[in-house]
Design brief:
Elements (H helix, E strand, L loop, with lengths): L7 H28 L4 H9 L18 H14 L1 H21 L2 H12 L5 E4 L15 E5 L2 E12 L6 E7 L9 E7 L5 E6 L10 E12 L10 H37 L1 E2 L2 E2 L4 H29 L5 H26 L10 H9 L8 H13 L3
Parallel strand pairs: 1-4
Antiparallel strand pairs: 2-3, 3-7, 4-5, 6-7, 8-9
Helix pairs in contact: 1-3, 3-4, 3-6, 4-5, 4-6, 6-7, 6-8, 6-9, 7-8, 8-9, 8-10
């Protein structure tokens, strides 16, 4: 049995995240969602609290905390505003972790420090029009030209894409080598040849920006290659393992918000001269929601603990994301059902929770991809 007794520091981090979420995020979440407004001021305050580089050592600009603390904090942030949650998740899990783990000393000094401290924002560029779940099929190319690589191509569905300062880009350097022909690069948004070609308008997480980014003869210094040529696919897959812990945490936050809204509503609303919480049918819905959320929480903590111990956590992260994302969608659906007609109105937050929840089953690997990952691990297929 895994021991999840939290340390005093972990509980302090959770409480700090909860206070920030309730006082700084929750009140404006609906308006930001409606206006598709990026939470610039809130992200700045998250950075000041150390939430944008939580697992990065302090010498590299981060907070030097563990993954369990990250999970606890991200749940609280996402409970108030799932858009802020995914901004935080991408910068921590996909950008900072990859650079901290695989970046050169010079890359860490130049890029990781400002990203981990929140002075800059990062984005992770893997998906393309024909390379989403099929991550090997990278049409973006990087051709060596003396002291530079020249990048050409288009990346789709990039979280933080419009507002990021630093981009981690997967591109093909040798198409004949398949996955071993994909490389990873650090690209500054201000480099000539980088452009935001489209900002997406989405069903949910609307105040986080999602963009299409185009590279046209973008010259990237060779020292911005991460590790070596051909390392990009492995880099992406290992980074996504950690990212899935972040998305599972986001999903749990949305599910908890759905449950809390339901609990509040059933204690206030009456039908047939009885409060809703007095009906057994409602009690069963709440019991199932609570049980599933706690199960998802434990799966996610288990993956986080394995990561903190330096153990392989690919299967555990995939399991956590698969289950937690389903729980988020189911919890939001049940919350709407409990609210009845009111749940379908924008006057109540549960319709936003459902719109926000759905994407957790899609990005950083669809639920179908998670099942493939889990099955391969269970069958020991490498």
């Amino acid at each position: 049995m895994v021991d999840f007794d939290f340390t005093e520091e972990q509980l302090m981090i959770k409480e700090a995240a909860r206070d920030f979420a309730e006082n700084e995020l929750a009140g404006g979440a609906a308006e930001r969602d409606e206006k598709e407004q990026f939470p610039f001021e809130q992200v700045k305050k998250m950075a000041e609290l150390g939430f944008m580089g939580m697992m990065v050592p302090q010498e590299h600009g981060g907070a030097g905390l563990d993954t369990v603390s990250y999970v606890l904090a991200l749940e609280e942030i996402s409970k108030a505003d799932a858009s802020a949650g995914v901004i935080m998740s991408v910068n921590n899990s996909l950008v900072c972790w990859g650079l901290e783990k695989f970046g050169s000393p010079a890359q860490k000094d130049k890029y990781l420090k400002p990203l981990a401290s929140g002075k800059q924002l990062g984005a992770f560029l893997l998906s393309e029009p024909e390379a989403g779940s099929d991550a090997v099929n990278q049409r973006t190319t990087a051709a060596r030209d003396g002291e530079f690589y020249v990048l050409n191509g288009t990346k789709n569905f990039i979280t933080n894409g419009a507002n990021a300062d630093v981009l981690l880009v997967m591109a093909t350097t040798d198409r004949t080598k398949g996955p071993r022909g994909v490389s990873a690069f650090i690209v500054e948004k201000k480099f000539p040849g980088v452009s935001v070609s489209k900002k997406e308008h989405k069903l949910g997480i609307r105040s986080s920006d999602t963009a299409q980014i185009t590279f046209q003869d973008c010259r990237v210094p060779k020292e911005n290659l991460i590790k070596e040529e051909g390392f990009g696919f492995k880099f992406a897959m290992m980074t996504l393992d950690g990212g899935r812990i972040g998305i599972a945490s986001q999903a749990i936050g949305i599910a908890r918000a759905s449950l809390d809204a339901s609990l509040k509503y059933v204690k206030e609303r009456k039908a047939f001269e009885k409060f809703l919480h007095e009906f057994q049918a409602i009690q069963f819905k709440l019991a199932d929601m609570h049980t599933n959320i706690e199960a998802a929480h434990l799966l996610t903590l288990n993956a986080a603990l394995k990561k903190d111990k330096g153990e392989r956590f690919t299967k555990e992260a995939a399991m956590a994301k698969l289950f937690a994302s389903r729980v988020a969608v189911d919890s939001a659906l049940e919350a709407i059902q409990i609210h009845g007609g009111y749940g379908y109105l924008k006057d109540f937050p549960v319709e936003r929770y459902l719109r926000d929840a759905k994407i957790t089953e899609i990005y950083e690997g669809t639920s179908e991809i998670q099942r493939i990952v889990i099955a391969r691990e269970v069958l020991e297929l490498k």
